[in-house]
Design a protein that fits this description.
mainly alpha
Length: 89
């Protein structure tokens, strides 16, 4: 790899894919994604689901592979979900 070259991040949501995971598999799926992406908190996991944190190409491939393992092969990725705007008075 060239020195100083930045890796691109993909800011896509995988909520569409999550919605297709069977309820009985949802906890197992979440644990496997968190392990693959080295995520230790639920907050970080949900930011990844919604596309608020970027995914490397390797992470996208790992996520796709996990979805395939759980029977989801289509309509996984979408535009990021907008972050909520804090209400100030």
């Amino acid at each position: 790899m060239e020195k100083g070259r930045k890796l691109s991040k993909i800011y896509e949501s995988f909520e569409n894919g999550i919605d297709q995971i069977k309820t009985k598999d949802s906890v197992s799926f979440r644990k496997e994604v968190m392990k693959q992406l080295s995520i230790s908190s639920n907050t970080a996991f949900y930011k990844r689901i919604k596309g608020h944190r970027g995914h490397s190409l390797a992470e996208v491939a790992a996520i796709n592979k996990l979805f395939e393992k759980f029977g989801v092969t289509e309509n996984i990725w979408s535009e990021p979900t907008p972050e909520p705007i804090p209400i100030t008075e």
